[in-house]
Amino acid sequence: MATKILLPVFPSESFYDAVVAAGDLIASEGGMVTFLFTQTRPPEEVYAQNADGHPSEIDVTEDSIPADARELERWRDLQIQGLTEARALLRERGVGEDRIDQLFADQADHESAAEAIADEAAAGSYDLVILARGYFSKEVDDAGSLPADVAHAIQELGGEVRLLVT
Prior knowledge:
This protein has helices at about 15-30, 45-50, 55-60, 70-80, 85-90, 115-125, 135, 145-155, and strands at about 5-10, 30-35, 100-105, 130, 160-165. It is α/β, with parallel strands linked by helices. The longest helix has 15 residues, at about 15-30.
């Protein structure tokens, strides 16, 4: 049976461990992998323009700094382009572009990254959410959510969606 995998894009080098696990699983069982961005992050030039010692304030959400719809779309396109290495790892495992998707969590709800991941996992009928073990050991924070928060939110779905920690 084909597996539908949700792969949150956490900002960490451990992300590639999760990509490899997803690729291996899709290559052996079939299915699809969807990269989930929990927030829209501005490109480096925005950080450079706002180098006032508070870069994390820029990174909170798209409504933390003024940006029009075209600019937000450009930022999202840049984030998707940033998946080049991840897509290459998937291709190396025989996972073609037709089995790769990406989406951005609905930020209108102002929920945590953990809640957004669990909500999308349930709403999108995903079988599995994959997180890298390195996220837990390094306590990687994504939009105010630690990996343990994500694991707890997935667990609260009552077995509807499984969590794989690689």
